[in-house]
Amino acid sequence: MLMAINSGSAAALSEEVPLLQGPSLSALRMPPSCPLEPSLHAKAIDRATRARVLEVKLLPKEPSRVKRFDASQFGLLTAYTYPKGTRERLELCNDWHVWLFLFDDEADEQKEVGQRPEYLQAYVEACLKVLRGGPLRSRATPLERFTHELHTRMCRLASDMWLERFARDAEDYLYRGTLPAARNWAAGNVPELEPYIEQRAMDSAMYTAQDLVEFAQEGQELPEALFQLPLVQRMRHLCTRVVGLTNDLFSFEKEVLWHNNPNNFVYVLQVNRQLGLEEAIDEAISLINADTDAFIACEEELLASGPVDPRVLSYVEGMKAWIHGNVRWSLVTGRYCSPTSPFPELRR
């Protein structure tokens, strides 16, 4: 029942792992939150994003690729995580999520991309220039064209302050998350635990997703003084860790067993702490729950500190919606469900 471990190397990644009797994803703790149904715009924003990625050829019109895209139900993730967002703004949020997922599929699943850090860096730098308002190159890639269209629409709805924050977080995602992960994969290195946790926080792109909490509803942008409050920043960091590391549970089979990618929290725990698969999953859930508990404690401290600006309260609810929505969507999306998943909840 245990996966063979080759310490410091990714050589043993593709070994077959028998189905586990446990552990269960239900052991993940959630912060208390007002129950919110997903936005009713879920299907509409899914259709709108699908049309755009097909138009710019970011999603090839291959039946298998389109079928996988449809099964992922990205619009449902956006509907869960920004349940009060307006239709126009939710379309933009969903477009960005799809940007991330399609780029992630290239960087995490295609060796010709994910194991060539120099190529990947040039690829992302072109997109970052467009995201900061630069012109399209004459031979722009589909991702660049999609980025340009996304940025143009965002500029009509967001302040310069917010746009700068979003672009800065996108840069951190690519330079401090995606590129180090590509170097690990190319070299066959399994990162050490603490550096990986910080790398994963960046590679999850969750800081950009939390920026969209301010964007999804008009009038919710945080002035810099509120954004920089120590408790807000601490909760932002904890939310990022919880969502990113939780995603590593759901994507373990896809990333590690199918694509031999060592950038996964469960596998990093296996190697660094010499654990079997079930032990590593138990440890991963325990560490994620500790971060969730710390997030809850920060919220309690914030509420006890006196009157809190409504925009900050809305932002906190948005972070909680992400922690809840990430799990709710991951349990139903076709992206992670598999009859050979180590998790019983995903064996469909």
Automatic annotation (TrEMBL):
InterPro entries: Isoprenoid_synthase_dom_sf (IPR008949), Terpene_cyclase-like_2 (IPR034686). The lineage of its organism: Bacteria, Pseudomonadati, Myxococcota, Myxococcia, Myxococcales. Keywords: Lyase, Magnesium, Metal-binding. The keyword Disulfide bond does not apply. PANTHER family: BETA-PINACENE SYNTHASE-RELATED (PTHR35201:SF4), TERPENE SYNTHASE (PTHR35201). Its cofactor is Mg(2+). It comes from the Bacteria. The keyword Hydrolase does not apply. It is an enzyme of class 4 (lyase). Its EC number is 4.2.3.-. It holds the Pfam family Terpene_syn_C_2. This is Terpene synthase. Belongs to the terpene synthase family.
